[in-house]
Amino acid sequence: MFTGIVEELGEITAAENLGDSFRFRLRGPVVTEGARHGDSIAVNGVCLTVVEHEGDEFTADVMAETLNRSSLGALAVGSRVNLERPTAVGARLGGHIVQGHVDGTGTILAREPSEHWDLVTVSLPADLSRYVVEKGSITVDGVSLTVVEAAADRFTISLIPTTLALTTLGVKQPGDPVNLEVDIIAKYVERLLTSEGATR
Predict the structure, then answer these.
(1) What angle do CA 46, 150, 139 make, to 5 degrees?
(2) Alpha-carbon span 144 to 160, nearest angstrom
(3) What are the transmembrane regions (predicted)?
(4) First to last CA, the chain
(5) How far is 8 from 29, CA to CA, in rounded Å?
(6) Which one of 29, 44, 76, 197 is least enclosed by Cβ atoms within 10 Å?
(7) What are phi and psi of 54, to 5 degrees?
């Protein structure tokens, strides 16, 4: 489990297209400290498994399902990525409950810069719209954010200076894809209310 509080901006140092999958090598001195084979690291909000670890770099495989649901297939050598290690038991939950299981992708539609923050509009896939509510939580490229306004096909978020400086959202521009993960609690509530036994 993650919290959507990005620990560092990493970098893709190698990308191998294997046809139905990708193998990435990523640099991240913070998240690789103490990393071992089999550990999880969120990359732009996608939970990936450490295959190999050497120095400040690690290797991870990305399967077809992940490529279909996320924007990781668009990454190339030199791409910057948001990195986060799983939350330790007993640690503060600084963002919200994030699984690293991307539900789909959106596209940056607009940026409205202010003196100290940016208002960003992101497109919203129709099948995710019902989970996104005003002042609710959403994960965008692995960053835990609060929804400012929610419409049927888009939502807006405000990015504070820290988010602008320390994550990829500071440089994303209209037309760029982003990974979206909706609040898992909303999905569980929907499942419980619509299950066969909910009306008994």
Answers:
(1) 15
(2) 12
(3) none
(4) 33
(5) 9
(6) 197
(7) -145, 120
Q: For residue 10, how far is the Cα from the chain centroid?
A: 14
Q: CA 100 to CA 86: how far, in whole Å?
A: 9
Q: Is 90 exceeded by the pLDDT of residue 169?
A: yes
How far apart CA 179 and CA 166 sit, in angstroms, is 17
Burial (CB < 10 A; 0-12, 13-18, 19+), residue 105, is buried
- Encode the chain in three state secondary structure: CECCCCCEEEEEEEEEECCCCEEEEEECCCCCCCCCCCCEEEECCEEEEEEEEECCEEEEEECHHHHHHCCHHHCCCCCEEEEECCCCCCCCCCCCCECCCCCEEEEEEEEEECCCCEEEEEECCHHHHHHCCCCCEEEECCEEEEEEEECCCEEEEEECHHHHHHCHHHCCCCCCEEEEEECHHHHHHHHHHHCHHHHC
Distance of CA 68 to the CA centre of its chain: 15
